[in-house]
Amino acid sequence: MPHPLYQPLTGGAGLLTLSDGRFKTARLSVALLLPLDKDAASAYAILPYLLRRSCEAYPGFTVLKRRLNELYGARIVAEVTRLGECQALVLHAVSIDDRFALHGETVASACAELLGSMLFRPVLENGAFPAKDVEQEKRCLIERIQSEINEKRLYARRRCESLLCEGEPYAVDRHGTIEGVSALTPASVTEAWKRALSTAQVRLIAQGADIPKDIGDAFRAGLASLPDRNPCRYTPQIVRRASTVREAVERMDVGQAKLVLGLRAGAAEPDEGVPAMRLMNALLGGTPHSLLFRNVREKLSLCYYCQSSYDRLKGVMLIDSGVEEKNAERAKEEILRQLDAVRAGGFTDEDLESARLSVVNQFRTVGDLQSTAGSWYLGQSFQEIPSTPEEAAKAVEAVTKEQVAAAAQGVSLGAAYLLAGKEAQ
Fold first, then answer.
1. Range with lowest mean pLDDT among 97-106, 183-192, 315-324, 379-388
2. Residue among 279, 237, 243, 282 nearest 263 (CA)
3. Arithmetic mean of pLDDT, 168-185
4. Is 0.90 surpassed by the pTM of this model?
5. Which residues are 30's β-sheet partners?
6. Four-way CATH pick for 246-420: 3.40.50.720, 3.30.830.10, 3.40.50.2000, 3.40.50.150
7. Boundaries of CATH 3.30.830.10 in the chain?
8. Residue 1: what pLDDT?
9. Residue 202, CA distances (Å) to 117, 129, 170, 194 in order
10. Pairing of strands 316-323, 86-96
């Protein structure tokens, strides 16, 4: 996978170009990066979905769709994601690569111009987003939040994160809350849009075979036109060790209980210990042949699934499992026993190499899709020098058994959350 090239655009903004001729499509992503804030999250979360609807140049679905068809069926995709304690508001433009245009058109540049117009020059009525558009997107955003609540495994993970990181920005949901979305007005959303443009760090990621030199011009001009541009600084709140263990049991109408343990990992970017933590997580519960899967699920039959995950930007681990409520305490004890075994080096060389191979293979397949490659570099927006997947793979290949054990010794339990049925099982 080619090494990216970074180019600063203007204060707090930068362009990352990934030239790769293996794909027939070009992809341009623009992300506004803002600190997670419970009071602003809902208003920020609705913005990408509002902005993708139209712009001054194409003020309506029909004319916008006609323009996208002229660009060989280009697509505009909106999403809101989380990077550590940062809320990322993202618009993607996906089109054919310029070398496949029938008449030599620069489709990528046209898509960049369209994205810039959407971001900086949306359709406004009396200085605010149209009330009808705001109401439609409010309903859609509420449905997104409700769908995550209905997905009980995801809901339980979010509840454990909130329990572990109570009072920290990490506890704020990237979509905000149903109450917060319901209270939005055209005026409040417009104010949030202006504030986001003024304070967000901006990242552009351009992907294609031969990326036009003017790909960032529309965004450079748009940012330069803002009168009070003052990009915020990203300063995540990293807690190295848990000082206490918070516990909570919540009852809902569920057939299978969800047990989630929240842990402080002790290592977060840019710590040198991140590669060892990545490998430790894979060994413990991050792969289908992990210690948790083989012992807690297969050998002892204490759960239906048992997996761990690691957020390197925040230094948080989650271990989530589906259990019978009567087995929840035993499952928790066995999960922590497996963690203790890793701390003591109680795993075989075969266990370690299987985990290492899994992590390395994941990194080496990042470049197989433009979307995963783009996500990889978006996730490194706050690193001074982004690393390629190949460099990350080499770092994991160099991790020793002793370093894995030491990484596990830095992990501390901070929360235990159980989502169980309404009646004790």
1. 379-388
2. 243
3. 97
4. yes
5. 91, 204
6. 3.30.830.10
7. 5-224, 246-420
8. 66
9. 15, 22, 20, 14
10. unpaired
